[in-house]
Specification:
The protein has helices at about 15-45, 50-60, 60-70, 70-90, 100-130, 135-155, 155-160, 165-175, 180-190, 195-210. By secondary structure, the chain is mostly helical. About 25% of the residues are buried.
Length: about 210
Amino acid sequence: MLSPVEHPSPRLRPEALRQRDGRRLRGERTRRSIVDAHSALLREGDLKPTAQTIAERAGVSVRTLWVAFGDMEGLLDATTDYWLRSDWELREHVEPSLALEERLDRFVAERARRLENIAPAARSAALAEPFSAALKASRRHHVQRVRDDVEEVFAGELARLDPAARETEALALTAAASWNTWSILRDDLGLDVAAASATMRRTLSALLAG
């Protein structure tokens, strides 16, 4: 039986390549402008902006927004990536060999900066998270980052505990330094950043004191 003749794909001419690359770059710029617009609206306090509002801020049509992301879940997925990158850029290494008091000071200061940064996105996410896989995944990622930081910064204290106690301690420290606790301090109790930071530090210190 004869094999079908394979025809090599014709090579694109330089002009066609430039046009294709130009379309790709324009598409990336459009997506970036929409994500930036969405994030800016959240920072300004519009926690549930409509597609129309986001498109207007980005300077595109609603149709262009949907072509770029498919649906709102696609946009949320891209926007959570933006906030995860923004959070990571604020991360500062706290040397585990420092004295505990200094580690606590540095860790709490860093957590306060990062939590204040993600606050608009976290408050917005609370409204839609039950219905969004992207937002649920983002929350898990943020919580895991806190857990990883806790285990790194307080490695010496955790190492002294037996495995079961170490796990309980790590979970308690993670909860104390996570967004939900910060939201209670800032939004429910009305504390300013300094007072909320002092409360977090006292909680962490008490947990580590055992």
